[in-house]
């Protein structure tokens, strides 16, 4: 297991322990756990998180892991998995189920492979336009002054290596 996976599992375990403690309960009292997690896209993702949960909870606890879009759809349809949900935030995904249980999805592949229309995707396109203007590969854009001002920078060169994690 990678260090980041270990940290994620330990964080999940701590959050669940805190929630149970605050509610005056304990792990043995839990009957089922359902986690709807961004990035659960394949059976291997689901199995990894199920393994984490199995490590945390006793064997009698029923465990369910889904993509977060499934929970969003269920919450908007009173628990009936029929219809379509579109999420456009940091990432983006469209996910839907037919009445007979068939499912389909688009996007939701992460920032590298496909989060078109997401906050990340839009920001990446804007920053690319600024850099392309600056190095002569693209047309002039009004985004340059707006982005530089918002970030407190004086030149597009300063975008290279900039730590965007500090931007809020």
Automatic annotation (TrEMBL):
Its EC number is 2.7.1.59. It comes from Rhizophora mucronata. Belongs to the eukaryotic-type N-acetylglucosamine kinase family. GO terms for molecular function: N-acetylglucosamine kinase activity. InterPro entries: ATPase_BadF, ATPase_NBD, Euk-type_GlcNAc_Kinase. This is N-acetyl-D-glucosamine kinase. Residues 4-142 form the ATPase BadF/BadG/BcrA/BcrD type domain.
């Amino acid at each position: 297991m990678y260090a980041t996976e270990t940290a994620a599992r330990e964080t999940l375990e701590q959050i669940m322990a805190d929630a149970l403690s605050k509610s005056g309960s304990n792990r043995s009292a839990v009957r089922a756990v359902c986690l709807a997690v961004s990035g659960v896209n394949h059976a291997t993702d689901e199995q990894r998180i199920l393994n984490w949960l199995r490590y945390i909870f006793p064997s009698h606890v029923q465990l369910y892991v889904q993509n977060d879009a499934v929970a969003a759809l269920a919450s908007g349809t009173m628990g009936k998995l029929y219809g379509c949900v579109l999420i456009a935030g940091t990432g983006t995904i469209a996910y839907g189920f037919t009445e007979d249980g068939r499912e389909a999805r688009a996007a939701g592949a992460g920032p590298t492979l496909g989060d078109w229309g997401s906050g990340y995707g839009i920001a990446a396109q804007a920053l690319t336009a600024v850099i392309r203007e600056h190095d002569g590969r693209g047309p002039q854009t009004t985004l340059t002054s707006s982005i530089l001002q918002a970030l407190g920078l004086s030149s597009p060169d300063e975008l290279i290596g900039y730590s965007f994690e500090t931007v809020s």
